[in-house]
Design brief:
This protein is an alpha+beta fold. The protein has a domain of 38 residues. It has 1 helix and 3 strands.
Length: 74
């Protein structure tokens, strides 16, 4: 019996919510009768920004390296 009562209360609380045209949520609370509260849902906007970054130039010089040549005589 208690499980049935808990399921009934849960079903009523889930069905007592609805969204308005502007995105807010209206919730009806069971108080001797019903009271409707409006919850304002925040909106999120994503803005991207670009920044110029100075990257240093790397200059390399070529170097001549003398490598010994080994000859093996058999």
């Amino acid at each position: 019996m208690r499980k049935l009562l808990a399921v009934a209360i849960l079903a009523v609380s889930i069905t007592a919510c609805k969204k308005t045209a502007n995105g807010d949520v209206e919730v009806q609370k069971p108080v001797v009768g019903t009271v409707t509260d409006t919850l304002n849902v925040p909106s999120v906007s994503v803005v991207t920004d670009s920044t110029k970054v100075n990257v240093p130039k790397v200059v390399t010089d070529s170097a001549t390296i003398k490598v010994p040549k080994i000859q093996i005589k058999r």
